[in-house]
Amino acid sequence: MLLRSLFSAVLLLLPITAQAATFERCGKTEIAVASAALRGAGDIVLSAAATVSDSDAYRRWFGRYDSLRAETVRRNLKAINRALISDEMAVVCPAFGEDGCLRDTYANVYPDEPYIINLCPAFFRQPNMHAHPPGAPELEFGTREGTIIHEMSHFRVVADTEDLCYSRSDCSAMAERDPAGAIRNADSYQYFAEDVTFYPLPAEDMEALEDTALEDPATPLDRTLPPRSFSTGPGEACLTCRLSPAIDE
C-alpha cells in the first residue's frame, strides 16, 4: 500500500508532456521547428492559465478585470493546453498558395476540424520565444509558439475564438474599449500567454500553479459564449487565418 501511494505521488509530480503530433507534407526541418513550437506553446499556455488574475498583463489583453470573464479566460487557456497534448494533434505544412497559405498568412484552421493546423511558409520565418527581448518590434505580430496558441483557440471544442483584431497595438486598444470582445479574440490569448512568459511571476508566487491544475479532460467545458457560424464553402480554406505583416520576397 505504501509503495502504491509513493508511486501515485510520483505520477502526480510528473509534467504533462505533449503527445507526438502527426505531420503531413512537412520536411525534416519543418517538423523540428513545428515540434519545438508545439512543446513551447503547451508550456506557456499552462503557465498563463495559472497567472490569470487582476494584473497588468490581464488588463492589457482582456480589459477591466471581472471574475466571470477571468474564469472564461482561464478555462480557455487550459482547454488549449489539453488540445495541444491530444493524440489527435495533426500538423500540415502546405506550400505557398495551397490550403489558404497566402503570402501574408502564418497559419490557418477549420474550426470544426480539430486538431488539424496548417502551418504556412511564413510561420517558419516567425521568431520563436526569447529570440528577441520583450518589446522588440520583431514581436509585434507574435511568435511561433504564440501563433500555435492563437490557432488552437479557434477550434469550437477548445475556445471558439474569433479574429476581432490583429497585432499587439490593435488588440491592446480593443481590450480597453471592449473587454467582452477581448475574451473571444484569438490574438488576446496569444499575447497574454507570451507576455506572462516574458515577465513571469516571482518564484514564490509560482506555487499557484498547483492550485490551477488541469481540469479533468472528461469534464465538459462550461460553454458561456454563444455559437457562431463560419463559412465552410469550397475554396475558403483560410477561415481563421493568422496574418503576417508584409514579407519582402
UniProtKB/TrEMBL annotation:
InterPro entries the record matches: Fungal_M35_metalloproteases, Lys_MEP, MetalloPept_cat_dom_sf
GO molecular function, one term: metal ion binding
Superkingdom of source: Bacteria
Limits of the Lysine-specific metallo-endopeptidase domain: 50-194
Similarity comment: Belongs to the peptidase M35 family.
GO biological process: proteolysis
Cofactor: Zn(2+)
Keywords for this protein: Hydrolase, Metal-binding, Metalloprotease, Protease, Signal, Zinc
Protein name (Swiss-Prot/TrEMBL): Protease
Signal peptide range in chain numbering: 1-20
